Amino acid sequence: VDGLLGHWDYSISQAQRISNEEKGTVKIGLLESIAPKLIPSILRYLNNEKPYIHCDFVIGNTALLSELLDQNKIDFAVCGNNKNRSDVNFTPLSKEQIEFIVNTPNHPLLQQDSVEIADIINYPILIGENSCYYYQSVNSFLSENNLAFKRVYNCSALHLIPEMVFGDTIGIIPKGTSLKQSNISFKVKGFDP
């Protein structure tokens, strides 16, 4: 009987502990370029600290994540600042950097001492879709310099751009996007959107 009472007391204390635990679902939106770095840390934290919290991840660009926030389909997002949304509290965590890549060490631009934005406009460009925050930053910089790309190939799956770079094309991606071993990153002088 003492063992049964001890087990009963233990069961009651466990039930009280569990009932005090936070439960529910958190829906997190992440930019594709940072998702691989953040998801393991988030999952580790939830597993260790909040075992009864379920997590749904939505991966996308700033435009998509802003729209999902507006529709209350996600609780928060780690993304760029959508300047068209004044009703969202935006806290900058870092400045998104942009990376230019090619796929061959023989690319004509890599033979130059320095590369300026005007040097790349005549090459085919692989870049995210026009709703991507970084795409808008690149285009804004081009406009300020009265320039425009001649040939643009858009891809909404940013992680695929390093795989798609071919011949003399130039990939423009958020820094932190996983690169292929054959990708070569280069700097564009004066480019700092």
Helix content: 25-40%
Radius of gyration: 23 Å
Inertia-based shape:
elongated
Largest sheet: 5 strands, mixed
Poorly predicted tracts of residues: none
Q: How far apart are the first and last residues' alpha carbons, in Å?
A: 74 Å
Mean pLDDT: 83
Strand content: 15-25%
Structural class based on helices, strands and sheet pairing: alpha/beta
The strand line-up of the biggest sheet is 6-5-7-4-8
Number of strands: 8
| Number of helices, where a helix is a run of at least 4 consecutive DSSP H or I residues | 6
List the defining traits of the structure above.
193 residues, alpha/beta, single chain, three-stranded parallel sheet, 33% helix, five-stranded mixed sheet, 8 strands
Explain how this protein is built:
The chain is an alpha/beta fold. The protein contains six helices and eight strands. It has a five-stranded mixed β-sheet.
What's a concise summary of this model?
The chain has 193 residues and is of the alpha/beta class.
